[in-house]
Amino acid sequence: MRPNGLTLYATCALLALAALAPVLWPGYVLVYDMVFTPEQPLNAAAFGLGDALPRAVPVDAVVALMTQVVPGQLVQKLALLAIVFAGALGAGLLVPTDRTGVRIVAAVAYSWNAYVAERLFIGHWTLLLGYAALPWVAMAGLRMRDGEPHAWTRLVLACLPAVLSAPGGILALGTALATAGRRKAWQVIAIGVVLNSPWWVPSLLHDGLSDPAGVEAFSARGENWGGPVLSVLGLGGIWNAEVVPVSRANPMLPVLTVLLLGAAVFGLRELSKRLPVWPLAGLGVLGAVLALLAVLPGGVAVLETLIEHVPGAGLLRDSQKWVAWLALPFAIGLAVAVERLRARLLVAVLLLGLLPDLAWGGFGRLEPVHYPADWAAVREKLADRPGDVAVYPLSAFRRFDWNDRRTQLDPAPRYLPGTTVVDDSLSVGGKVVAGEDPRAARLRDGDLSGIGWVLVERGTPGRVDENLLARLEKVHDGPELALYRVPGAVPDEPNGPPAAPVVLAWVAAGSLIGTSLLWRRLPVGRFAAPRPEE
Fold this sequence. Notes:
By secondary structure, the chain is of the alpha/beta class. It contains 23 helices and 9 strands.
């Protein structure tokens, strides 16, 4: 590797450490939707065969398999570091230049921005893995466009981090279509359909639909006087104000956003002489429009109608996530622009300075903690004992004292063996967005049919009906958790989608991945080589 190449790799590593150094301390980072446990159970829900919509498929199955071999905290640390390092490196390598400084600008622009910060702070690590994969998907797509032998295998392998989640899989498919060209579109679509089948097959077979009330609750928000439009165009605008970095209120930010976008467009014009970047830029515009659709006139009504009647349309909720498509053309366009303007160092420092509160884990937002001993004790009591577990207080999120009162998803489904039922309704801005699990709905009515155990989590907001607990048999009483057996419990009949098509989807995706690995003649790391310059 040439010295200039080493400089780019070292810079990407420094960016990852600057953002995530505290994450490397022992323990688990538990914030909002990001929950890791020592050993995640491998159950039917992880494969999309549970009662609720398969929102964490296939990532739950992959993490469960990985944590059978290595501790969950190591899996988390590697995943988070990979998000920043791989995303930055891929964006840098995508720029067709020998100048390391230009590639560093692309790396900084792609990895050190509001999208990465806000999604990290809200715990959307699987979405960010897909985001980090997009530059590599783009490189693979360009190789397919050029007709390189077996380029499709590179695309399959580049998409693997993205297809861990439904949004990530769609982001990767769009990027591949934009870069591979129309002649290769059918191959790209076929690869995308097969790789994403572990989540879309059970989603289509599931009876449930998302609550359309989530459209307005999860719509993009303004972060400064520029409103939602300039916030989204600056790769921010997430719906949850609690995860927005303080620096996003900078009064100069809307002006700088317009200037940086203008520079990126100028750079894309120059880059179009060397690469077919306009489809990628058009995809970025589409992402921005989708992100802003809920705040445009009539947009809420359109989205609510789709979500109410079309299975899988719940992916359109939290629409700000689709602005990820804008980040890649912005990063490479800006890098080429500053190459012409000879302002590489200045722009890189500016990008870092505009978001200082991504550094050091958001200065306390991402801080590892340890699970209290009660959790391991309850897991041991439930091992090899039949019966599903209902968790109280009824809330999808917790604020435990042992996690410094941070908002976090209930860890019970990923910590305890077997099947765990939690309340999946959400309260957002005073509005309640209904959940999708019929068993959780029955719990809200006090119905414990089909439940073998009740777990009470202490030290978190919410009340528990003492009359309900009085009818149960207490088997564990600790400072953090209490476990009760439900006398005479009769297990529920499985009510998920039929197993056969779901299993077929997993087999098809696994076969495509295995074939790609064989074509690449292991080790698979060679797929990451940068595209030769034209």
